[in-house]
Amino acid sequence: MKTKSKRGELTLNNLIEIIDSQSTENHFIELSDEVFLSLDYEIAKALADKYGATLLMKLPSREIKFFEWLYENDREIWNDLWGNTEEEPYIVGMSFLPVLINKMRGYPICDLLDNDNYYFTSAHIVDKESEILIESARTRFMNNEDLTTAQLLILQISVSPTDIWHFAYNFNIDLEEAKKAVEDLVQDNALVHLKEVEYLAPFIDF
Questions:
Q1: 93 and 135 part of one domain
Q2: Which of 3, 36, 142, 144 is a good FRET partner for 81, with 20 to 30 A between their CA atoms?
Q3: Please, are residues 141 and 159 in contact by the beta-carbon 8 Å criterion?
């Protein structure tokens, strides 16, 4: 198969060669920023299907920068994710590759055990209560008008699954302000907040 990335010159076969050459030498692979920029969803999904169950990879550099920010700004969450193991941090399964090429999503924080989860998908939006709010936020966004944090958050959730830490990082919003937006949306019956991983798990799909 010689599928070509729409954003670069690397073909699927080229990428398989790169991955196979690394996997014979290490227990995980590390793709360059250039490779990540070359990927589109079709190729990322094909690679995830081929290697996802058997091969580990290191997060891209921009996602590592996010987790370095998380380490400084919410150490408990970082420890919940990476601190309770002797393994090198930032090593994940290849099955995450399709979400890692989306700069607004990154590696999803959705399975915390010692802290409340703040991961949301469109399924957590209460349709009737949120429809007007989302349309209003979308209109204001398209007109380059200011949005409240709650408006921006529910608009982002309606577009793509997100966790509150990536949301705060991507939009340069204080974490407590972002969490307060969740509280406001829940109180307004616009959003359902499932905090425990066992209840959240059915909504997690990469």
A1: no
A2: 36
A3: no
